[in-house]
Amino acid sequence: MKIFLASASLEDISWGTASELVDGVVTTPSLLATVTAGEDGQNALAEICRTSRVPVCAMVTSISGQDMYHDARELAKLCDNVIVQIPFLEDSISTIRRLSAEGIRVGATLIFNSAQAMLAAKLGVSMLTVALDRLEEVGQRSVDTIGEIRAIFDGNGTECDIIAAFPRGPEQFSACALAGAHGVIVNASVLRSMLVHPLTDRGIDQFLHDLSKRPKVRIS
Predict the structure, then answer these.
(1) Which of 19, 45, 156, 212 is the most buried (most CB within 10 A)?
(2) Inside any domain, residue 220
(3) Cα–Cα dist 4/207, whole Å
């Protein structure tokens, strides 16, 4: 399963890619704003694209069809590994179709049920994002939604990556994998939290304790 790191921090991105834990980077205008100090986020995005060896998901900043198309074309020029993220709206239908026909990789965001997912895939998106936290805010079982979409895609032979966005922690991360998500989006703190477990810490303590009890061998 692919792991996408939601961050605009070059330090976090470098850590994730150098460790080979991260298969892609997700940026948003709000994430870019955290590292630009009021400057144009495009410069920060361009630097991320220039230094990253993995795909970079970059979001358009418009919601009207023609403006989304223009934004997407500009984002696609940043580097070959950009995946343009476009909100799935009625106004974005023609934009997604045009971009996909032009060979630009497109990801659909704001997908919250299997019907939207099927329509987005039909337009040619290469990936779609389901925000787990937003579904749960309205009382829906987010992981069940991931499983339903995967079952439908498998049944119809649909080729489109299903990405679960922002699992709460290791348990929900694993649940998304079991439900058939092709990838997840996590921030750096959640990704680091998945590296640790209380029993791992206890095991290390026991190892160090046992090591301290070993007789020292003198070499003459």
Answers:
(1) 45
(2) no
(3) 33
Cα separation, 112 vs 116, in Å, equals 7
- Which residues have C-beta within 8 Å of that of residue 41, sequence separation ≥ 6? 8, 29, 32, 33
Nearest Cα neighbor of 4 from 180, 163, 193, 179 is 163
Predicted model pTM: 0.89
Tokens of 104: 């630009």
CB atoms within 10 A of CB 21: 15
Contact by Cβ (8 Å): 200, 171 = no
* Domain count within the chain: 1
Whole-number average pLDDT of the chain = 92
Q: DSSP code of 139?
A: T
CATH number at residue 122: 3.20.20.70
- Give the domain range for residue 35: 2-213
Domain-located, residue 21: yes
Residue 219 within any structural domain of the chain = no
Residues 6+ apart with CB under 8 A from 142: 130, 132, 133, 135, 136, 164
Kindly report the backbone phi and psi dihedral angles of residue 25, in degrees, each rounded to the nearest multiple of 5, phi listed first. Answer: -125, 140
Q: What is the mean pLDDT of residues 55-76?
A: 94
- Assess if residue 218 is contained within a domain: no
